Amino acid sequence: MRHPHTRTARRTVVGALAAGLLCTTGLAVPAVAAPAPAASARDSVTPTRADGLALTPPMGFNNWNSTNCRAEFDEAMVKGIADLFVTKGLKDAGYQYVNLDDCWALPARDANGKLVPDPVRFPGGIGAVADYVHSKGLKLGIYTSAGTKTCNNAGFPGALGHEYSDAQQFADWGVDYLKYDNCNNQGVDARLRYTIMRDALKATGRPIVYSICEWGQNKPWEWAADVGHLWRTTDDISDNWGSMLSILKQNLPLAPYAGPGHWNDPDMLEVGNGGMTDTEYRTHFSMWSVMAAPLLIGSDLRKASEATLDILGNREVVTVDQDPLGRQGAVVSSEDGRWVVAKEMKDGSRAVALFNETGSPQRIATTARAVGLPGAAAYTLRDLWEHRSYNTAGTISATVPAHGTVLVRVQPDRHWAANPPAVELGLDGSLLLEAGRPATLTTTVTDLGRTPATRVSVSLTGPAGWTVRPESAVRAPAVATGKTLRTRWTVTAPAGTPTGSYDLTLRASHRSPGGVRVDSALTLATGVVVRPPTGTSYLSDLPWLSAANGYGPVERDTSNGESAAGDGHPITLGGVVYAKGLGVHADSAVEFYTGASCRTVTADVGVDDEKDGRGTVAFEIWADGRKAAATGVLTNAMGARPLSADVSGAQVVRLVVTDGGDGIDSDHADWADARLVC
To answer: How many CA atoms, within 13 angstroms, populate the side-chain half-sphere of residue 324?
Structure first.
């Protein structure tokens, strides 16, 4: 859970309890190098628990992201979630655990030191809830903290010093899963605290999956494989693109440490909570599955849309996550926001994610050899979101929408010829248009298969009132392996079209040698833009093309407040207050259209004073695909630093803030007095 009020007090050492425990351990934890360890590092990881639990990543539900501590979190709600697991097909898809988070107990233990379930929320007690959940063929999870209190500011009792008593209560109630948080830990060594609870759970004799939630602060991937079944690798996730992306990037390098019974946990799923688009949620779900992450639904299933249930219930994607070999996907390539991540599967196939981090469509490509498959005449390629199979000569590629992911499963297959050839739809040229001015685009249809695509045709359509006219051939009798049908189009948005994003839809049809017709489509988000004014302008006064942020929205002329728009403060760096600028939170990227008519970007940059000495970030200015300027890592104590970049000739300028390499906690970054000269 994310509790900002606890962040400055998590490590406070208090009294004799901490002193008595601290003297019992002298553990030293080695550092992890920045690059991912070599595959051989898998063999040197701490031996895992041999209890047969969590042999695949746990799947289920946790209420925190959807209900927090509100009154609606109660016995009826939990039983209702169990019912929905059954009626909505989630149980059949593999979801198993219905997990209670914080606020289930009273703030005080009873006279015997026992935990007391809140009688208003859970009038029948936790045991009755467990019985109901078990009656549905599901399992119940519960929450506490490895501290004197849990994370909620109401002060619910934690398990530090009560491990064996609390574990026995959980077992007596029929609990199957424990999430063990890290708040109010009194500075006691993490490895010691979490190991004591491991032993306490084991002493009950009940099989209980043990989830270590210490936020990755002590690199649990290095020591927890024989302590817990899963461990959080990062701070808490939030329901926005920047947060999800930051956590994804922190978890990806840890692939060698995951396996059956010991999983990296990048936190719960936000799918369906409303802060991201369905495209972004499909990316979230795809990448968590490729990373063999636990799949714990964090949205309110009572209100879930069909689109949300379709994502969560995609059994082909779930199968990737639950593959019994237990490999976490490894990064094959990552260049300019174009990611290829491949996961070895038990049957020898590879699940391959083509992930587009950027704010515009990108062609992302790899090969069967590059993802670890042996040479073959051809391969079967299965699109796990389209649920269709194709043959490929070895190329694995797609034009991936902004923030999108194409997830495929590829394998050598002697029956490959039974599938039609894969074709890739794409676009050459910019998708930025000025209203009233004709723009030329070129679409592509490329045969990736071993067999030719025949009777190929293509069309391009835009919003009502737009003119879309082909200037070259839209049909071809055949397109051979590796060849492309290119069609040039003139596209005009009517004069007066408001700035913003509009969809162009590219459709293609082709037939396999056996006559099977295959229809495909690609939606391209086109930006209608206005050329910036001549002279010097504040960037906070100009419209941006896209904006992604770690927490909350990008703010104009205030700092970032992490939540709703307008909740920031005056931009302040090193005691200097700025009236103009952009307030962001790492990881962040803000794009502006410059139309090759601007010369320079300037700003004073730094971590806002409101973070009281915390926060580390790095600023970058990009001109199209070129990094035009960068600061290196800046801390809060450094105050404002001037940053200037030559952006001459660039169509798009992108302002980027990264987290400085230590996670995004407190990374309130300011582009103070940011100006554009055109």
So the answer is: 4
